Amino acid sequence: MSLDEIRLHIDAVDTQVKKLFLERMDCAQQVAQEKAKTGGDVFVPSREDVIIAGRTADVVPERKAEYAYFLLLLMSISRRYQYGLLPAMRQQVLEDLSSRAGLELTAAHTGIEVSFTCASGEPKLALFANMAALNGITVSNLTLTTEGETQHVCATLQGNAGQENMQRLLCQLGKELNEFALTGLC
After folding, report:
1. Percent of the chain, pLDDT > 70?
2. Which residues have a Cβ under 8 Å from the Cβ of 89 and sit 6 or more positions away?
3. pLDDT for residue 38
4. CA 126, 131, 134: angle at the middle one, nearest 5?
5. Burial class (CB in 10 A: 0-12, 13-18, 19+), 85
6. Is 90 exceeded by the pLDDT of residue 63?
7. Would you list the DSSP string of 88-125?
8. Helices 124-134 and 61-84, axial angle in degrees (round to 10)
9. Whole-angstrom Cα distance, residue 167 to residue 95?
10. What is the full DSSP assignment across 21-66?
């Protein structure tokens, strides 16, 4: 195949992926509606681990890592969408985070300082950066230190806690990252 023919084939595949992605988001919406009724968590790591293991089991080794990361990112995007559909959950997470930090999120601010930990081999730092970008939130002053197998991350998220995308991001981070905390307003 020529490069032009390969690109046409990629376009056709992307069209199929788009249809399936939108169908998956419809399913995520239904999941969010059920979780709103039952109070269930959006993020269930054990379920996601089983899904990824099952869906990557038959993938050739040279593509397995890429497909696993694709699934991680897809599920993270799906969760972001669900958090957007669950305002009561977002509000509760924000209240819990601000209370633990002793911060008043209604005070004037243009940035929120946060911290969290993750294992050195985990993709949590990359997912953090991807989720911030997806929400249109700029990450500044990122500091990363490693002690043994644990990474400690401190960052400033540019924006205000009153913004819906910031609320989605803080909710997702608060639910999904180890030792996630608000550490200051700026």
Report:
1. 100
2. 36, 42, 83, 171
3. 94
4. 125
5. middle
6. yes
7. HHHHHHHHHHHHHHT--TTS--SEEEEEEEEETTSSHH
8. 50
9. 11
10. HHHHHHHHHHHHHHHHHH---S--HHHHHHHHHHHHTTS-HHHHHH
Instruction: Specify the DSSP element, H or E, that contains 160.
Output: none
Question: Which burial class, exposed, middle or buried, applies to 97 when counting CB atoms under 10 A from its CB (0-12, 13-18, 19+)?
Answer: buried
DSSP class of residue 2?
A: -
Global pTM reads: 0.92
Is residue 71 a contact partner of residue 63, using CB atoms and an 8 Å limit?
no
131-134 long-range contacts (CB < 8 A, ≥24 apart) are 131/76, 131/80, 131/169, 131/172, 131/173, 132/157, 132/169, 134/77, 134/80
State the DSSP code for 163. S
Instruction: Say how far apart CA 55 and CA 149 lie, in whole Å.
Output: 28
Statement: residue 103 has pLDDT above 90: yes
Query: Which tokens hold the place of 35?
Result: 């979780």
Burial label for 162, CB within 10 Å (0-12, 13-18, 19+), is exposed
Which 8-state DSSP code applies to residue 1?
-
Q: Which two tokens stand for residue 102?
A: 């002793």
